[in-house]
Design brief:
Elements (H helix, E strand, L loop, with lengths): L1 E3 H4 L14 E4 L5 E4 L1 H16 L23 H17 L5 H22 L12 H8 L2 H13 L2 H15 L8 H8 L4 H8 L28 H36 L4 E3 L8 E5 L4 E2 L5 E3 L10 E3 L5 E3 L11 E5 L11 E3 H4 L12 H18 L1 H4 L12 H4 L2 E4 L3 E4 L10 E7 L6 H4 L18 E7 L4 E7 L7 E3 L1 H10 L2 E3 L3 E5 L10 E3 L6 H13 L3 E4 L2 E4 L3 H12 L7 H10 L1 E4 L4 E4 L7 E2 L2 H8 L1 H7 L2 H5 L16 H4 L1 H18 L1
Parallel strand pairs: 1-2, 4-11
Antiparallel strand pairs: 2-3, 5-10, 6-7, 8-9, 8-10, 12-13, 13-20, 14-15, 14-19, 15-16, 17-20, 18-19, 21-22, 23-24, 23-25
Helix pairs in contact: 2-4, 6-7, 10-12, 10-17, 12-19, 17-18, 18-19, 20-21
Bound molecules: zinc ion.
The site of zinc ion has 7 residues, from helix 11.
């Protein structure tokens, strides 16, 4: 019997909980399907909400369309909400006011909350218990045990990977369909890495300095340590976790505090369009895979969703994540750091992008941005034990062919050995693949060499060093890819290329003459992709803390242009986390100043000489009250430099120190806001 979906409404909220049989339901888009009773119960609680907002009860709202691997997880509600929101946005043509969105979200929350409260007393059906036997049943599967034994003989990465493949196969076996461990694995309630270590092989383990031990632990945790070696190396992982949850977490949290102090001056969102967008060239990196075909790093597209960009047809469009054609291309991205709204403490929602909708009007924009990014980092440190997987990144160890010509410096750059670029030889040139240096063409037009983000110009797996003399031409291939680390051209070689140009060869290659290249300067740099969160946080802080300044003529310039800093932070943090670029743009705007040369550290809104500075300048020289709050209060009070007139009132904290000036400033802002709206 087909039951129209509207009839479900007639069943009371308490009665529906007693439902124990599946039903065949007809939806409002005329789709008929069998729905299981647990789904119907959940659906009934959401129905009241759907009716309130006149949402058409179509089959795509049905719960099973929003499951993860066929199971109800904590993502399900979010997926349902996003399909409701899409339906409503389509009807209202994207002009849903913030207030309306808030109402929608609140009602949705109430519906789910009511359901969860009711379910508590009926939970038995919804609970899952795991027994030791469930774990052992899978552990002692003969296929898995055989693979683990093989790994203990071979002690290789491929053997460990094979164990994980077999574990996958076992988990997908029909005979374990109802095993709770499989359910946890399939629903991703527990991280796959954890299950792999519990039942597969513990894998490669790192020393505290991230150096990988040569021999892996091939047993699973369920099987236990095989010998004293296993126990000894695994104890290092424990030490690392202890270090990360104390010293490293202190550092991360202190950085979070500094970041909040620095960004607080950016107070709110102007809901509208400043009408004066600046677009920045942004290369959308694709997913990258390692040599064994595993996903090494997710592409950029999911982390720029909601941003506006200027398409090739000249129109401004919003990225919704489905623009596969933009992957591996340069796009013109609108950036919040260049917003031109007259109130310097606000950024317009058009420059920020759709993520502005998730930020409420009463929230301090800078603060929420800083906490969102830093909370992810601290959380990653705390759960580092859960994230442990078989280690795979390593220090640069030069291939013999490369070691003949080059040296590694600081585990991040390569320089030529003395004498390689000797004068006796007629010509020395470098040959490399065009597709691995996709950004070279763009670099040639760049006026300011320091505005180049080297990671967006090239990514080299290998290059050819060619010696050409009267008698012969010798070509040597230099492999440059180590573990997950790939080389890019350094700033020095890029300026050399800008000066001397490049040629194409054999259609597929570029060549550059390097006879004149200074052999003391680095030619290749390595992106830091060591997945060590403590190091990542340290590096992130380093990018913001101290800034190197270069003197160009009679002016001082930062080593990064503002949009390059945004992209550098983006590359770094999204090595492991997922942070939308809009948040990093807002954060970087807090570090942008009017005029570095003339020490005008006021927020760099509409500044001709806009530049980015470090924590010290932003906190100490922009506004004195945040400076007092930061550190060394006694020193600060007695430091006359901090009380010079350029130290303006621009933080909400100034209310405590100079209320008169702050009120005056606030009145001026009110006048500007009235002018705009
Ligand atoms: Zn704007």
């Amino acid at each position: 019997m087909r039951i129209p979906i509207q009839n479900i409404m007639k069943i009371g909220l308490d009665d529906i909980l007693e439902l124990k049989k599946n039903m065949i339901i007809k939806f409002e888009d005329d789709v008929v399907m069998e729905c299981n009773y647990k789904g119907i119960i959940t659906f009934r609680y959401l129905l009241a909400f759907y009716k309130k907002f006149n949402i058409k009860l179509t089959s795509d709202l049905w719960i099973t369309n929003n499951l993860t691997n066929g199971l109800f997880t904590n993502n399900t509600y979010l997926k349902i909400y996003s399909s409701i929101f899409k339906q409503l946005a389509k009807v209202s043509n994207r002009i849903m006011s913030n207030k309306a969105k808030l109402k929608l979200f609140k009602e949705y929350y109430i519906a789910i909350d009511t359901l969860n409260k009711k379910l508590v007393i009926h939970t038995v059906d919804y609970c899952l218990g795991v027994e030791v036997e469930d774990i052992l049943k899978i552990q002692f599967d003969s296929r898995l045990m055989e693979a683990i034994h093989e790994a203990s003989v071979n002690n290789s990465k491929s053997a460990i990977d094979h164990v994980y493949d077999i574990l996958d196969e076992v988990m997908n076996d029909e005979k374990y369909r109802h095993n709770p461990i499989r359910l946890l694995y399939a629903s991703k309630t527990v991280s796959i890495g954890q299950i792999r270590q519990l039942l597969g092989s513990r894998g490669y383990i790192t020393e505290m300095d991230s150096k990988i031990f040569n021999i892996p632990m091939t047993n699973s945790f369920a099987l236990g340590f095989k010998n004293i070696y296993d126990a000894a190396i695994e104890s290092r992982a424990g030490s690392k976790a202890m270090y990360l949850s104390s010293k490293a977490i202190q550092d991360a949290e202190y950085m979070a505090r500094e970041l909040q102090l620095a960004t607080m001056t950016i107070e709110n969102i102007y809901r509208g369009d400043c009408g004066n967008p600046t677009y920045v060239d942004f290369y959308v990196n694709p997913d990258s895979y390692n040599s064994t075909g595993d996903l090494e790093r997710k592409g950029d597209l999911p982390n720029i969703i909601g941003k506006r960009y200027k398409d090739t047809d000249g129109k401004e469009k919003i990225i919704d994540g489905n623009e596969k054609h933009l992957i591996s291309t340069y796009i013109k991205l609108r950036m919040a750091i260049y917003c031109s709204h007259p109130d310097k403490h606000s950024i317009c929602s058009a420059c920020i992008g759709e993520i502005a909708d998730s930020i409420l009007d009463h929230q301090n924009l800078g603060h929420i941005t800083a906490t969102t990014a830093s909370a992810g980092m601290s959380q990653a440190l705390l759960s580092t034990k859960h994230l442990l997987t078989s280690a795979s990144s390593a220090n640069i160890r030069l291939d013999a062919a490369v070691a003949k010509y080059m040296l590694v410096r600081n585990n991040e750059k390569l320089i030529f050995k003395a004498g390689v670029l000797g004068k006796k030889i007629k010509r020395v040139y470098l040959k490399f693949r065009q597709r691995e240096a996709w950004g070279l063409e763009n670099v040639m037009n760049v006026k300011d060499i320091f505005s180049i983000n080297i990671n967006k110009v090239s990514r080299l797996s290998s290059v050819f060093l060619v010696f050409e003399s009267k008698r012969e031409t010798v070509e040597i291939e230099l492999p440059l890819k180590y573990a997950s680390r790939r080389a890019v051209f350094s700033i020095d070689i890029l300026s050399h290329i800008i000066k001397h140009g490049y040629n194409t060869a054999d259609e597929e290659f570029y060549i550059i003459d390097i006879n004149d290249f200074d052999n003391k300067r680095p030619i290749f740099m390595y992106d830091k992709v060591e997945f060590d969160f403590a190091a990542l946080i340290k590096e992130f802080k380093g990018k913001l803390k101290t800034r190197k300044y270069k003197q160009v003529g009679d002016k001082y310039k930062s080593e990064y242009a503002p949009h390059v800093l945004v992209q550098t932070l983006f590359e770094l943090i999204n090595n492991k986390l997922n942070v939308n670029i809009a948040l990093l743009e807002i954060m970087t705007y807090a570090f942008a100043v009017q005029d570095l040369t003339n020490r005008n550290f006021d927020l760099g809104r509409n500044a001709v000489n806009k530049d980015v500075v470090g924590f010290r300048e932003v906190i100490d020289y922009r506004t004195i009250s945040t400076s007092y709050n930061w550190d060394n209060l006694q020193g600060k009070v007695l430091n006359p430099v901090l009380h010079l007139p350029y130290n303006k009132c621009s933080s909400p904290m100034d209310t405590f120190l100079c209320p008169n000036e702050t009120i005056k400033d606030e009145k001026q802002r009110q006048a500007i806001r009235n002018l705009v709206t």
